[in-house]
Amino acid sequence: MRASSAPDYDLLIVGGGINGAGIARDAAGRGLRVLLVEQDDLASHTSSASTKLIHGGLRYLEYGEFRLVRESLIERERLWGMAPHIIWPLRFVLPQTQSPRPAWMVRLGLFLYDHLGGRKRLPGTETIALDRSPVGNGLADRQGRAFVYSDCWVEDSRLVVLNARDAADRGAEIRTRTRLLDARREGGEWTATIVDAGGEHRMRAKALVNAAGPWVSDVIGRAEGIRSESKVRLVKGSHIVVPQLYEGTHAFMLQNEDRRIVFAIPYESKFTLIGTTDQPWDAAPGTPVISDAETAYLIATVNRYFARKLTPDDVAWSYAGIRPLHDDHAGNASAVTRDYVLDLDAGEGEAPMLSIFGGKITTYRKLAEHAMAELAKVMPAIGPAWTAGVALPGGDIPGADFERFLAGLTAARAGLPSELLRRLARAYGTDVAALLDDAVNIAALGEDFGGGLTEREVDYLIAREWAQTSDDILYRRSKLGLHVPSGTADRLTAYLEARPSTLA
Question: What is the pLDDT of residue 4?
Answer without folding.
Answer: 38
